[in-house]
Amino acid sequence: MIKISNEWDKLLEEEFSSPTYLKLREFLKTEYSNHTIYPDMNNIFNSMKLTSFEDIKVVILGQDPYHEEGQAMGLAFSVPKGEKIPPSLVNIYKEISDEYGVPPINHGDLRGWAKQGVLLLNTVLTVREHHANSHKGKGWEEFTDGIIKKISSKKESVAFLLWGANARSKKELIDLNKHLVLETVHPSPLSAYNGFFGCNHFKKANDYLISKGKTPIDWENI
Q1: For the chain, does the N or the C end have fewer beta carbons within 10 angstroms?
Q2: Catalytic residue ranges
Q3: pLDDT at 20 > cutoff 70
Q4: Cα–chain-centroid distance for residue 27?
Q5: 28-45 pLDDT, tens per residue?
Q6: How many CB atoms are located within 10 Å of the residue 5 CB?
Q7: Which residues contact 44 (CB under 8 A, 6 or more apart)?
Q8: How far is it, in rounded angstroms, from Cα 196 to Cα 60?
Q9: How far apart are CA 61 and CA 209, in angstroms?
Q10: DSSP label at 131?
Q11: β-strand 159-163 against 58-62: which pairing, if any?
Q12: Contact of 205 with 161, CB cutoff 8 Å
């Protein structure tokens, strides 16, 4: 039985016992036994271990984990300190730098955001080494859709940052009367200049949190 060790354990009982997840679990057993899979199995649910349901203020959706050695840590867009900052995260930092007039962050570890209430959730939580999207369509999407639905239905005034087509497709799961949804293109170098740069999502999310009486996220100090 998976143990996250906070409110998520109770909230996700239904997801963890669903036929889809049980089938996914068997698939993952085989994958981890026969291939190099990222992240380490103990880190698959890090996004929820570090950001309890009660503490969520912002949700940033990624796609699937980084698929090269030493990168994936169970948090969307994040890599451990000492690892080269991936191109999409470089662009995220550039946008924060432009919005707040501060130097870009010099490492890729986003645990500081997670601990402030930013759920860094990939829609697929595992991947085979060197093969992006290799665990797509295996059941993770239904599991993470369930997480998004629960946040939408049980929380109030959460800012959802949806970047790129994959993330934006999840908008239909979110109650727009209760939450803020900010959408734009993915921060990848292939698309960032088509709307990500200049989106002001970090300031907009904080303005929203402040308007709801919540402490804003300190985006630049992590």
Answers
A1: N
A2: 64
A3: yes
A4: 22
A5: 999 999 999 999 999 999
A6: 10
A7: 74, 125, 126
A8: 14
A9: 18
A10: B
A11: parallel
A12: yes
d(CA 178, CA 55): 17
**Per-position b or e across 38-68, b if 16+ CB within 10 A of its CB:** bbeeebbbbbbbbbebeebbbbbbbbbbbbb
| Torsion, Cα of 207, 211, 215, 221 (10° steps) | 0
Percent of the chain whose predicted confidence (pLDDT) is above 70: 100
Q: Which two tokens stand for residue 134?
A: 């290799």
pLDDT tens digits along 157-207: 999 999 999 999 999 999 999 999 999 999 999 999 999 999 999 999 999
From the CB of residue 187, how many other CB atoms can be counted at a distance below 10 Å? 25
Structural contact between residues 187 and 92, judged by C-beta atoms closer than 8 angstroms: yes
Within the chain, residue ranges assigned H as helices are 8-11, 13-16, 19-34, 46-50, 87-100, 111-114, 140-154, 165-168, 201-211
> Average pLDDT over the chain, rounded to whole?
97
Q: Which two tokens stand for residue 208?
A: 């929203």
